[in-house]
Amino acid sequence: xxxxxxxxxxxxxxxxxxxxxxxxxxxxxxxxxxxxxxxxxxxxxxxxxxxxxxxxxxxxxxxxxxxxxxxxxxxxxxxxxxxxxxxxxxxxxxxxxxxxxxxxxxxxxxxxxxxxxxxxxxxxxxxxxxxxxxxxxxxxxxxxxxxxxxxxxxxxxxxxxxxxxxxxxxxxxxxxxxxxxxxxxxxxxxxxxxxxxxxxxxxxxxxxxxxxxxxxxxxxxxxxxxxxxxxxxxxxxxxxxxxxxxxxxxxxxxxxxxxxxxxxxxxxxxxxxxxxxxxxxxxxxxxxxxxxxxxxxxxxxxxxxxxxxxxxxxxxxxxxxxxxxxxxxxxxxxxxxxxxxxxxxxxxxxxxxxxxxxxxxxxxxxxxxxxxxxxxxxxxxxxxxxxxxxxxxxxxxxxxxxxxxxxxxxxxxxxxxxxxxxxxxxxxxxxxxxxxxxxxxxxxxxxxxxxxxxxxxxxxxxxxxxxxxxxxxxxxxxxxxxxxxxxxxxxxxxxxxxxxxxxxxxxxxxxxxxxxxxxxxxxxxxxxxxxxxxxxxxxxxxxxxxxxxxxxxxxxxxxxxxxxxxxxxxxxxxxxxxxxxxxxxxxxxxxxxxxxxxxxxxxxxxxxxxxxxxxxxxxxxxxxxxxxxxxxxxxxxxxxxxxxxxxxxxxxxxxxxxxxxxxxxxxxxxxxxxxxxxxxxxxxxxxxxxxxxxxxxxxxxxxxxxxxxxxxxxxxxxxxxxxxxxxxxxxxxxxxxxxxxxxxxxxxxxxxxxxxxxxxxxxxxxxxxxxxxxxxxxxxxxxxxxxxxxxxxxxxxxx
Length: 799
Prior knowledge:
799 residues; alpha+beta; 4-stranded antiparallel beta sheet; 32 helices; 19 strands
């Protein structure tokens, strides 16, 4: 037995459920030794693997070595294990699902029930929304549908056929995880006796993580054969379990949290921002990702034990690891981050040891770990024993007054081009940005670096990884490399990537001035950029609610934490990215995890803010709990980037904290446009009013064409609009007051009619989605001013 074999057994133990649902296989046709097993799905799992073993010449080197009779036996008997390794798989299976044996009496339901969305655990109103049985290729399939999802054996046959065709080419655990994620993320793991809201992929990966950790504990003699039997009996018992073994630390939960992001990314002048901003952003994503990988691989674990990686954070579940070893790994990472970026960036890394009982109290233990991370961030770099020596680094540089880098101002620089001096570090981020233009793949291979890292790639080589971004793959020559697919989720042409890197990696246009100029059409438009930051609301409270359920129903929420985190990441990393990539009007600073920050033309960004929020509602089953808050600012293209980032961050926070007088707590789900907090419906109205105003001013014919004075007139109409709006919210309406208001705007009847309609709709509309903020008019006129400003050339011609 080895690590790969225990992982293969754990990851594939439920594969037979998919095969069984195709109805293409019958138990009586299986070998006699398989027929003796009670449950159907282990028979089919083992049958598939046994069939592959007989065709060994068609298998990858990895499968030839590790797909053995021993693995097949573990898979076949995972409900009735015959040895210690089988007990490890069974215990991990139970802990991952917190369910016992599946009731297979409801055969028809077992075959036809679709995967339920996971959001109902937080918001009951989303109950009854299901996913189509499909791969992850088409974004529309990731949106749950209400009650009308039908599944047949043909759906299973088509999905399984594609999976089985690719499986023999799997050459390591990462590729297997990618293959299973792609094909089995929408396949329910269990369909009888409870709501089928966990996919086979999610169940398998958490089972694999727990099994591998327990296997390592067993290898290290932290648990024995006798212990495994006792643990199983304790878990099987329906009484409260207080066995000392269930309280023995067997796992290590390790988390990382990156801080200093804003100052690191945005401390660069706007005229140079586009040239290196994307490089810095991608570096941060890779920093947390490869620091997690460094910790995993230095403890002989794989990506299977990464519960979550994204948004500058990671959570890893390993076996019991001695503190000293983790302290050494943390110090190594921190020291090299400091050498590359100085005090700007800090990756706080902390851990706690967990018992089996702690896994049933996962969210409370995770909160304990978050508290440790917060304390670590207050003492950043305190883990470095040579900290004071590093402060004086680099000692060998004698930098003259005019020899500092014009970007960071910290290091000796050389002249890249006339008048531009960049240090090696800053120039490497410029080069990284250039390499990301239209890149499609990340190539990783093992490497080493002995010196002090001065560039982004030297830093990762110090961790042991050489990374390259490429536009096209060569047909051959990637024997020892790992290949990750950027911004896409697809498996085709017999190519299995080692993972899907979701989020924003590539760019179309790196010059902010060029993007801003795209606002100008037909001689009208303002050379401003829109800064948009969006963030998923209430994620802390959402996980707390899962924790409360975990306590009351004695369920393990580790799997649900992984499922929910991954679904949110899929929204930002796939759904959002498909709406913004390959667009030269947008500069995606970062998109991933549960938030985004993008810069672009105001027309495109305004449209995106509304579309992304609309799609998020649909993605979460029209949930009232899951929502997005946004901050939005319009700024000149040469505005200092760090100030712009700060302004939009403050606007986002203002949107999150806003509450109406009658509210005890903020309900969020709002957008703050500079200083004005609006609902998304109010912002949509403002956007449409702005369009009406702009259309009148920019008409080509002089008939019906208005001057920009209309904007001031509409701004002044706020005095009359405000009391009308307040009355409408109370269900009252004053026709004479509306007539006077419309008379005031008599020269602009279309706009007067639109504003009057808002008043009438408020009176007639039931529910909360009413217009409450009259200052949407000021947002509308702000947008209209930008849309109707004459470009400089046209202004000169008029003179």
